[in-house]
Structure formats: structure tokens, C-alpha cells
Known about the structure:
This protein is mainly beta.
Amino acid sequence: MLKKIILFSVFLLSILKIYSQEENFEAFSVLKLKFSSHLAALQMDYLPYQINDISSAINNPSSLSEKTNNQIGLSYTDLFANIWQGSIYYGRSFEKLGHFAFGLNYIGYGTFDRTEANGDVVGRFSANDYLFTIGWGRKLDTNLYIGASIKPIFSQYDTYLSIALAFDLSLTYIWEEKGFGAAVLLRNFGTQLKVYNEIEEKLPFDLSLTITKKLKHAPFQLFVSANNLQKWNLREDDPLNPRDEVDPFTGEIKKENAFLGTLDNIFRHLNFGINFSPSKHFYLALGYSWKQSREMYLSDAFSLAGFSYGFGIMVKRFQISYSRAEYHKFGSPNHITFLMTLP
């Protein structure tokens, strides 16, 4: 097992070195979106344990298991300005080969007027993204699980077409007796196979670590994820809202507190979630993202930006869940997921 872990670590470090060398514009932001309502409620990109929810498990291939065998899932999210996303998933397990997941995510951006320079409308066009996922996972040793995904992506924006190929690699450790799980995931490393307009762009690579712990004497499960570990500075530069303040009378520049700035940057890497499950048929979930809260902050208006919440109901072979992620005061996506385990 030690040799396997060392090989995985060497591969992880080699990928990390490649993707942390230079800054380029990123394409295919569809890879950053959450399609599962349970994940959206917890503000998690994936879960570090095995769960009977193919829409969540497919995001961490090393968490695929018998629990997702022969399960089909459908998800729908209304985003902003008539933009919507939909997904379909299926899981299948094979005794010798391991556990597989297949998914298709679609985003429709609507239709737009095609106009001339003078404003005359001369037609209509549409914009769409298609993300396919094939995931595989299996037990590596005792409490250790490994998984990988391949994700072909197609974007069609009017006459512009781009194709990319992304990969995920994950390792999950599960200690069921203690209710503990941890997973490290390399997401979205890959390349564009066909660029939009002769400009090559990077995929939104992310190295992350997520841990979870079930409380022993209460029906709560806690989650913490650390994202974008390959990049330290996640703070945006906004010329309209500089962090250094200028005294309007003296012109003296008051520098931002260095400690508070560092603390802000640390918390932009972290997301938090809590799951309350009083029975196996029902759950309530709550999540929080400091990064999202700060990026959507409005100084003159109250907002719940950064918070998310939702619930799920499970009856026999069926599950339905709903969540709402508060992006800003004037719009927040609603996620709905339906799951069914086939006989």
C-alpha cells in the first residue's frame, strides 16, 4: 500500500508543478459548477465518503461504491437570466472491475439576437455547454479507495466551437468506526483540443482536500474543504474598491492590515458544511463559503451571499432533494435532484 501511495503522491506533485507555473485565462467554467443539490446545499464540490447518491458520488470517483450501483439521477438548476443546467447520471458496479459512473451535464445560455454594427437584428444564435463524465473507482487497501474520471467537454457559442478533455484523480480514506472520511482530489487537469478563436486557454484546475466527521452522539455530520491549494492568493483586485484607503483631506495612504489580509486569504480557500440527519429518510444541510460571501459583498445592502441550504427525502428506492445557494441579493440558483435505484 505504501508504494501505491508514494506513486500517487509523485503523480500529484508532477501535475501540481505543471499547473502552478503560469497564469492564463481559464475556459470551461462549467467545470466549476455544482449540479447536485446535496453538494450545493453543503457548499462542497464533492463528498469524502460513500453515499447512495450518484449525483454527488460522481464528483469524487473514489467514493463510488455498491451504494450507487444501478442508480439513476436527474438534476435541474435555474441559474440567472434564463440560463439553466440539467444533468443525468447512472452508476454501475462490476465485481472485478470496480464501480463506474456515467454522466451528462448540459448548460443552456438561451438565444440571442445577432445584430449588425448599426443595431439591426439579422438573426438569432444560441450558446450551450456539454460536459460528459465517465468515472471509475475501487478499493485500494483496507480503508483506502482510488478513483479517476475522464470528462470530454464541448462548447458551442454561435459559430465558435471548442472541445476539451479534462481528468480527475482522487484518493479517499474512510474510517467508518470513527465516522471519519478524507479525500484529496485533483480536478480538471487537461487541455483544449480545439480552441475558440486561435487563443488557447487553461482549464480551471483545482487541488483540494475535504474532510468529514460524524458526531458520535448526535445526528450531525461536519464538513470542511480546502480548495485551490495550488494557488495561494485568491483575493480579487478591484480598482473601484481598493484595500488601501486614502485620506480625502491629507492624501495619506492607510495600508490594509497585513494580518487581516492574510486571514481573509486563508478563509477564501475554505468552505464549511453541516448535515443534520435525524433519520435515514431525511436530512437538512447548511453550507457557507467565505470566498463567495466576500466576492458578492454589498456595502450598502444586507445579503446572505455565501450561505446555502437544502433538504432531502428518501423513500424506499427514491430520493428527492432541493437546495438554494445564495449568490447575491438579486438572484440565487435553486437546485433539484431526483434519484432512483433501479430494481
